């Protein structure tokens, strides 16, 4: 290290204390690779501030010394958005010590917590007050509030409650110059110009470091019914969704689709797993219906009636309702294990995409046919949140393909084709996992030029030196990276 670096680290140590600054490379190493293992970088050190004041002072020091900062929550992102580059010049800043739930207001149905609070912990705190936080996902045991806000996470309850943006009532964030933007107090009506908190939601740490948030809570569930249904096609699954929406209204909270090949992968991956239905069905729908205490009476009978009518209409070939919470959780485990099971099956290009909800079935059919025709031996499957138009579209490599070689050659070409198709269908190349560094070049290639100009203008206004999470989401100058 040179004298300037030594001086910076000495000043930072005075702010954070030895507990809040890690320079030992072995201790920093586990946080330098993203969850998927696609990106590994280097860092000057790992900062672990415990308060917003410490974050602000750390950012001020970095601005003064022109040290880039890469914010990190639970390091469970899918697009490399919390991984530093290979230069070793950046400071990795983790919020995991900022893990206090500051208040849960039962009457207001709000929770205020620090950015490092793990989603599972927030769920438990809300439940203790007879409430719940209406967003969940497979990584709830590691994903943090700050990361969920920074990526505008989705999950399995978007159909009823919306994405993370809909849950955020207030935000506190440290700006690139170290100033603290405090808008934690929620106001139902506030016409003092732009809704500035929205800038930080989905910005992937490129505009500010989220340190705390006030979040919306909803009444706890008094009853839930989880069903697994077999259907003949993805178009039929869409018709079943509309049927369930008409018959169940707001009680319908989740509607996920899993094609039979994905279910087969999960059953092979989880040795104790069992198929919910006898026989094989081209597509499977996982349906969750919930009710608060005022509407819990007769919920199961209502779901049974709706599914019986679906059978009469030819929308469902077979269905089963979970008879216990354990069985309901087992159904969800099948769905939540698809990604890991597909990854264990072999190399694959994974696409987190969305198109208009009503067009998703036709898109899946066309995209799968086009990819498999152009790259013989590949296997295209789509699964996920059909109700909000977000499907995880995976293309598996031909048998015997070597992972690194295939992903770097044919895999890249396949992703380019998939993204072209998504754009042509009026969709998004990133539905809920963010752009990060994985899709930076593709966003530059495919985004509306006016939208890209606006993104760069906001970045330039708040972080003209590009010190916050450089190389992620948007660059002030076009990236030289190849998709």
How is this structure best described in words?
The protein has 483 residues and is α+β, with helices and mostly antiparallel strands. Among the domains are: 101-219, Uridine Diphospho-n-acetylenolpyruvylglucosamine Reductase, domain 3, CATH 3.30.465.10; 223-335, Alpha-Beta Plaits; 339-424, Alpha-Beta Plaits (2-Layer Sandwich). 36% of the residues lie in helices and 20% in strands. It contains 17 helices and 18 strands. The protein has a 5-stranded antiparallel β-sheet. It has a 4-stranded mixed β-sheet with strand order 1-2-4-3. Strands 13-14-12-15 form a 4-stranded antiparallel β-sheet, sandwiched between helices. A hairpin with a 5-residue loop joins strand 8 (168-174) and strand 9 (180-183). Helix 1 runs antiparallel to helix 3 (52-65), helix 9 packs across helix 11 (299-312) and helix 10 (260-269) packs across helix 13 (338-345). The radius of gyration is 23 Å and the shape is globular. The model has no long low-confidence stretch (mean pLDDT 93).
């Amino acid at each position: 290290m040179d004298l300037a670096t030594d001086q910076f680290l000495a000043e930072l140590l005075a702010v954070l204390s030895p507990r809040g600054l890690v320079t030992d490379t072995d201790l920093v190493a586990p946080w330098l690779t993203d969850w998927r293992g696609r990106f590994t970088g280097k860092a000057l050190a790992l900062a672990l501030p415990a308060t917003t004041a410490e974050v602000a002072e750390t950012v001020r020091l970095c601005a003064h010394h022109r040290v880039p900062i890469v914010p990190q929550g639970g390091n469970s992102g899918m697009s490399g958005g919390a991984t530093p580059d290979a230069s070793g010049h950046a400071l990795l800043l983790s919020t995991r010590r900022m893990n206090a739930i500051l208040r849960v207001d039962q009457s207001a149905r709000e929770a205020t917590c620090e950015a490092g609070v793990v989603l599972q912990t927030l769920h438990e705190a809300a439940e203790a007050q007879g409430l719940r936080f209406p967003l969940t996902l497979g990584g709830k045991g590691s994903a943090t509030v700050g990361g969920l806000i920074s990526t505008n996470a989705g999950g399995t309850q978007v159909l009823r409650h919306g994405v993370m943006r809909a849950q955020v009532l207030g935000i506190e964030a440290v700006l690139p110059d170290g100033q603290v933007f405090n808008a934690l107090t929620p106001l139902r009506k506030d016409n003092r110009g732009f809704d500035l908190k929205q800038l930080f939601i989905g910005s992937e740490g490129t505009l500010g470091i989220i340190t705390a948030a006030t979040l919306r809570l909803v009444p706890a569930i008094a009853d839930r019914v989880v069903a697994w249904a077999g259907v003949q096609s993805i178009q039929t699954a869409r018709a079943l969704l509309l049927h369930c929406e008409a018959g169940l209204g707001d009680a319908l909270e989740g509607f996920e689709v899993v094609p039979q090949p994905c279910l087969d992968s999960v059953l092979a991956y989880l040795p104790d797993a069992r198929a919910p239905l006898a026989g094989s069905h081209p597509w499977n729908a996982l349906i969750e219906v919930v009710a608060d205490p005022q509407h819990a009476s007769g919920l199961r009978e209502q779901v049974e009636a709706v599914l019986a009518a679906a059978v009469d209409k030819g929308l469902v070939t077979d269905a089963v309702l979970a008879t216990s919470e354990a069985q309901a959780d087992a159904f969800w485990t099948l769905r939540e294990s698809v990604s890991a099971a597909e990854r264990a099956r072999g190399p694959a290009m994974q696409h987190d995409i969305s198109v208009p909800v009503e067009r998703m079935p036709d898109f899946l059919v066309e995209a799968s046919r086009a990819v498999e025709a152009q790259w013989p031996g590949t296997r295209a499957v789509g699964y996920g949140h059909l109700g909000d138009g977000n499907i995880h579209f995976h293309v598996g490599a031909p048998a015997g393909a070597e992972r690194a070689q295939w992903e770097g050659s044919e895999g890249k070409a396949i992703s380019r084709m998939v993204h072209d198709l998504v754009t042509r269908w009026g969709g998004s190349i990133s539905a809920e996992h963010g752009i990060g560094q994985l899709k930076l070049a593709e966003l530059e290639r495919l985004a509306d030029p006016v939208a890209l100009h606006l993104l760069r203008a906001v970045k330039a206004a708040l972080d003209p030196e590009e010190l916050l999470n450089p190389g992620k989401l948007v660059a002030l100058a076009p990236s030289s990276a190849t998709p």
